[in-house]
Amino acid sequence: QVQLVESGGGLGQPGGSLRLSCAASGISVGFYVMGWYRQAPGKQRELVATITSGHITNYADSVKGRFTISRDNGKNTVYLQMNNLKPEDTAVYYCNFRLGVVLWGQGTQVTVSS
Fold this sequence. Notes:
- With 114 residues, the protein is mainly beta.
- Helices cover 0% and strands 48% of the residues.
- The chain has strands at residues 3-7, 10-12, 18-25, 34-39, 46-51, 57-59, 67-72, 77-82, 91-97, 108-112.
- It starts with a strand and ends with a strand.
- The model has no long low-confidence stretch (mean pLDDT 96).
């Protein structure tokens, strides 16, 4: 079984920071392109960031320069460091494989508000 469990969300202030974690089991994330996605209320799910097995990263324009995706193969975990948070970052954040996705989990709620 392959399982991805997101954590680390919560309430952040504008300009603040949060770090999300995606713990994988049943498969090694080091062999695949991994992605962080988010879905805001009333909006479509969107791809936020990706990281390849070679640690090449890409970001949506909306988060470029503020978010950093990384991977720890030893811990089989993908991270999303979120800096300079904005209210529009409010969403449920999910991790998954970029291609051949597994079932979407519960995600982790990020709320950015004063």
